[in-house]
From TrEMBL:
It is found in: Membrane. The lineage of its organism: Eukaryota, Viridiplantae, Streptophyta, Embryophyta, Tracheophyta. It holds the Pfam family ABC_tran. The keyword Nucleotide-binding applies. SMART domains: AAA. Residues 110-363 form the ABC transporter domain. Its main location: membrane. It is a multi-pass membrane protein. Residues 51-77 have a biased composition (Low complexity). GO terms for molecular function: ABC-type transporter activity; ATP binding; ATP hydrolysis activity. The chain crosses the membrane at residues 448-469, 481-503, 524-548, 554-580, 587-609, 689-711. This is ABC transporter domain-containing protein. GO terms for cellular component: membrane. It comes from the Eukaryota.
């Protein structure tokens, strides 16, 4: 690096505006950094916060404009050296998203016939003996054509691989000489910003970062935790230039119609979310993708300034950086081609390598563009250079062995780097997720208003169609049964509109769960805690007009039980949609699954086909149908209890109010009572509260199944 300082300063002088903007970012970061760095550093392994050798600190190129960190030990962040040696990755069998969650005996029939993933070479490897070293205060850019292995490399280093890649013999990943041998340690020490900004659109910028801090900054002193989080969030907002949009919605799709912040600002929010716990290493997968040139330069300037202020190791992938980006902000390059290293070094060393190969670089051409055209030649030159360097290092290995052994032996306790990052308390997780879920739902005004309007209009519409079902009507039983059946169909199908929002939220969940921000079971509990009272309100809005307009059993207790039954119906439906949103890869398949499930459940509810007429091989569907139990409940509520003796069909006279004594006084003969209606349909009135328990069981079962699927997805996610 020192050999290239002269050329680097020359290149920087050509782009003074960009460099000055980076210095403004650096000064802004330093204003707030020294106030909270000591508390944040204590959350990481103390041994990793130590600078191991003097060469580590000298790896950062000198910058006369950079502030001095040596004046105060407390204000000086530690230096880090992140090293990777001989990292290889085999290509996994290609498998579609749809079949990823199927049992093995089903996925065998539906999986692709291709044996390996796209991008693998003839040897079946996505990465081939990749080695590099990155140090604090510098940005290492992983570059290369599409399919070169850039995202795969970052995914493995962020702990989102299988774990076998870093445990192979001859492969090592280390931070300050301390070997990292598990995925959990990588996730602990490396922040990872994905290419897509998976954020909740209806939270503000400040709320998004604050919730991330609440989950990931943990303190034993509860009294100071909130103050510490607020200071950290305010510092990040200031450092990343988000002060003007701190109270604006993030936006970016996914619900609510919120316009949100710009693409560049949204990317900075994503960076802040994964920097909030101050990891030693920050990995970014194409942070400039989808941004205009100005926004892309701003993002790199921010990363450049923050990396120097916090002495973080920054490794990012970038598809085609401009010359200004390379010269102004990127310290070194790792050029990949078909998973192998074609060049590792500074931009100046890349130019020298091209010259040695006999290529003349036109003044108007970016050297990296030319390098991508001759990657095969560069790989051969890199291989020869590595072979000679390895031979020279063998002579010095004995001298260096004692020093490196000292570093490793000082850090050989597995407890120095925790295997897993501890969670917050269950109460903290559930309460924070409940508040966040409530804010998101409350701000999705279109969905909330649509559900309320749907309930009111549906109740009024059905009430007007079945207006005043008089006991004198000989078809009263059939009409009531039709009303209850349609009510079930209406309520169970009215929750589908939440599917696209849940699918978008799932991506946020996967990103946060992969970082061990909270337990997924806490999310399932918080989601139920928010939706249950809201669905109760919807049930009241639907039941009140329908019950009294249709002339159902006139008793306050019966009306209350009708509301309870409707509430349980929509709770079951919401749990089913939540479960299918966890299973489905997209909206199209999710919507199809919901339609199929509801159709099958309705068919075997006992309304179309009586229980005794269902074929034996389909008899089990009668017991798993979500329609059967609420339909029985509504009939028991209408014809059970004190209404068991009420006459519902008679001969001669008139109904006289629908009871036996009045019918007899009017000269009629009762042919059928409420008890007969229940008996004819095979309904046991004593099963009333058992059916309530079964409906609650369905509500819980689908949520437990949702949790199980989300856990499986989170274990395999690359977000």
């Amino acid at each position: 690096m020192e050999a290239d300082e002269g050329s680097e300063l020359y290149l920087l002088s050509r782009f003074a505006p960009s460099s000055s903007s980076a210095q403004l970012i650096l000064n802004r970061a330093m204003d707030h950094h020294h106030h909270h760095h000591q508390d944040l550093s204590s959350e990481l392994d103390p041994t990793l916060l130590m600078s191991t050798t003097s060469t580590t600190s000298s790896s950062s190129p000198p910058d006369s404009a950079s502030p001095s960190f040596s004046s105060s030990p407390d204000a000086s962040p530690p230096h880090y050296t992140f090293s990777v040696t001989n990292l290889s990755c085999p290509a996994p069998p290609r498998r579609s998203t749809t079949t990823a969650l199927l049992p093995p005996f089903l996925s065998y029939f539906f999986s692709s016939s291709s044996s390996s993933a796209a991008g693998a070479g003839d040897d079946g490897l996505l990465l081939k003996s990749v080695s590099f070293t990155a140090s604090s205060s510098n940005i290492l850019a992983v570059v290369g054509p599409s399919g070169a292995g850039k995202s795969t490399l970052l995914r493995i280093l962020s702990g989102r691989g299988t774990g076998s890649e870093i445990s192979n013999p001859g492969t090592s990943v280390s931070l300050n000489g301390h070997a990292i041998t598990s995925r959990s340690k990588l996730r602990r020490l490396c922040g990872f910003v994905t290419q897509d900004d998976n954020l909740l659109p209806l939270l503000t910028v400040r709320e998004t970062i604050l919730f991330a801090a609440r989950f990931r900054l943990r303190s034993s002193a509860a009294a100071t935790a909130r103050e510490r989080r607020l200071e950290r969030v305010d510092a990040l907002i200031h450092e990343l230039g988000l002060s003007e949009v701190a109270d604006s919605y993030v936006g970016g799709g996914g619900g609510g119609g919120a316009r949100g912040v710009s693409g560049g600002e949204r990317k900075r929010v994503s960076i802040a979310v994964d920097m909030v716990h101050d990891p030693p290493v920050l990995l970014l997968d194409e942070p400039t993708s989808g941004l205009d040139s100005r926004s892309a330069m701003d993002v790199l300037a921010l990363l450049h300034g923050v990396s120097r202020a916090r002495r973080q190791v920054v490794v990012l992938s970038i598809h085609q950086p401009s010359y200004r980006m390379l010269a102004g902000y990127i310290s070194s390059l790792l050029l990949l081609s078909h998973g192998a290293v074609a060049h590792s070094g500074t931009l100046k060393s890349l130019e020298d390598a091209l010259v040695r190969l006999g290529h003349k670089i036109p003044i108007q051409l970016n050297p990296l563009e030319l390098a991508m055209e001759v990657t095969d030649q560069l790989k051969e030159q890199q291989h020869n250079h590595h072979h000679h360097a390895h031979a020279d290092n063998n002579d010095e290995e004995e001298d260096d062995h004692d020093e490196m052994s000292l570093i490793v032996n000082n850090n050989n306790d597995d407890d120095e780097v925790p295997d897993e990052q501890g969670y917050c308390s269950r109460w903290t997780e559930v309460s924070a997720l409940t508040v966040r879920c409530w804010r998101t739902m409350y701000r999705t005004r279109e969905l909330f208003a649509a559900r309320a309007a749907q309930a009111v209009v549906g109740g009024l519409g059905l009430g007007s169609v079945y207006f005043r079902l008089s006991p004198d009507n000989p078809d009263g039983v059939a009409l009531r049964l039709g009303l209850f059946a349609f009510t079930l169909s209406f309520l169970l199908s009215s929750t589908v509109e939440a599917l696209p929002i849940l699918l978008h939220e799932r991506r946020v969940l996967m990103r946060e769960a992969s970082r061990r921000a909270y337990r997924l079971s806490s999310y399932v509990v918080a989601n139920a805690a928010v939706f249950a009272p809201c669905l109760l309100a919807v049930s009241l809005l639907f039941s009140a007009p329908l019950y009294w307009m249709a002339g159902l059993r006139a008793a306050a207790g019966c009306f209350g039980f009708f509301v309870l039954a409707v509430w349980l119906i929509v709770l079951m439906a919401s749990s089913l949609v939540l479960f299918l949103s966890a299973v489905s890869p997209d909206f199209v398949l999710g919507n199809a699954l919901i339609c199929v499930c509801l159709g099958v459940f309705f068919l075997f509810s006992g309304y179309f086909i009586p229980k005794g007429s269902i074929p034996k091989y389909w008899a089990f569907m009668y017991y798993v149908s979500m329609y059967r139990y609420p339909l029985d409940l509504l009939l028991i509520n209408e014809y059970g209890g004190s209404a068991r003796g009420n006459c519902v069909a008679w001969v001669g006279g008139h109904g006289g109010g629908g009871n036996n004594s009045a019918g007899a006084m009017a000269g009629g003969v009762c042919l059928r009572t409420g008890a007969d209606v229940l008996r004819d349909r095979g309904i046991d009135e004593g099963m009333k509260w058992v059916n309530v328990g079964v409906m609650l069981g369905f509500f819980l079962l689908y949520r437990v199944m949702c949790w199980a699927v989300l856990v499986r997805r989170a274990s395999k996610t690359t977000l």
